[in-house]
């Protein structure tokens, strides 16, 4: 439950630091943790629990494969963080 309160601030911190190109040694691990938790959560919800994710921004009445899109977004965040750590 605490993660839900920390998440928006952690993501904002990582994003702002990445845009500024500052303190990458903080931004990269934060992005890695956020991306990993998100990817595991989406994978479990969509592919193990067989839940269907709905996009609230369009009223939940769309045929967008939100599970696949969310998983891709989170995996890209993990890849980006790993790339920043190795760079």
What would you note in describing this structure?
The chain is an all-alpha fold. It contains three helices and no strands. The protein starts with a helix and ends with a helix. The model has no long low-confidence stretch (mean pLDDT 86).
What is this structure, in a nutshell?
With 87 residues, the chain is mainly α. The chain contains 3 helices and no strands.
Oligomer: single chain
Q: Extract low-pLDDT stretches.
A: none
Level of helix content?
over 70%
SS content category: mainly alpha
| Terminal CA distance | 33 Å
What Rg, in angstroms, do the CA atoms define?
A: 14 Å
Tally of strands: 0
Provide the residue-averaged pLDDT: 86
- Please give the largest β-sheet: none
The topology string of helices and strands comes to HHH
Our estimate of the beta-strand percent is under 5%
Number of helices: 3
Tell the overall outline.
Answer: elongated
Characteristics of this structure?
single chain; mainly alpha; 3 helices
Describe the secondary structure blueprint for this structure.
Blueprint: H1 2-20, H2 24-48, H3 66-86
Helix pairs in contact: 1-2, 2-3
